Amino acid sequence: TYRKALELQANFPDAYCNLANALKEKGLVKEAEDCYNTALRLCPTHADSLNNLANIKREQGSIEDATALYNKALEVFPEFAAAHSNLASVLQQQGKLTEALMHYKEAIRIQPTFADAYSNMGNTLKEMQDIAGALTCYSRAIQINPAFADAHSNLASIHKDSGNIPEAIQSYKTALKLKPDFPDAYCNLVHCLQIICDWSDYEERMEKLVKIVADQLEKNRLPTVHPHHSMFYPSNHEQRKLIAGQHALMCAD
């Protein structure tokens, strides 16, 4: 085990990094962070620890620290595909779309079968209004990994926005088959079915959708129902106000 490796060789940064990965997987984030920092004290140029610690910082909302750590990892190891993709994700989050696109392209150049990078690059291109480019990226991600639920849902969103509702429905259904607990795909599928006046299992769908939204509001998460669409569902007035409020906050940010 990793702890055994540390007993045998206490100054072994790889073992600290591996232990940190295992701790993070178990949800022990503070302990994982301490182990990554120990690995970096032993070897300040340990690229995996820099990248993985950056992931923790990003999840904690420390975007500046995460960006600095990803950049440091890339200084140490310029051909680090995951670090390029992770940095791109942070840049995209900050609205630096051109820079994000550059790093996604680097990640894919280094690792041509990097499905996550293709899907995320698709999101960036969609945000830049390059719909054809986004469609190509999502399709490529699915070609690489046919079981990639998020890519199927992203592809569905392109079809939905383009008015190709039957294709959108098919892609959302595929996403949900692969990942049944997928609120975004479910809520969008429900809306697509409303658009084509498919009322089969209507009450069951509405019950599930209202439950999803209520849970998201309770946890202070962005609801996966658009404020305008909430008018078509059996939500109460207070819920509709909360849905609109959460989406307004996102726009303000």
TrEMBL record:
Pfam families: Glyco_transf_41, TPR_11, TPR_12. SMART domains: TPR. Its EC number is 2.4.1.255. It comes from the Eukaryota. Keywords: Glycosyltransferase, Repeat, TPR repeat, Transferase. The keyword Transferase applies. Residues 196-253 form the O-GlcNAc transferase C-terminal domain. Pathway: Protein modification; protein glycosylation. InterPro entries: OGT, OGT/SEC/SPY_C, TPR-like_helical_dom_sf, TPR_rpt. Coiled coil: none annotated. GO terms for biological process: protein O-linked glycosylation. Gene3D superfamilies: Tetratricopeptide repeat domain. One of its GO terms (molecular function) is protein O-acetylglucosaminyltransferase activity. TPR repeats lie at residues 13-46, 47-80, 81-114, 115-148, 149-182. Belongs to the glycosyltransferase 41 family. O-GlcNAc transferase subfamily. This is protein O-GlcNAc transferase. It comes from Folsomia candida.
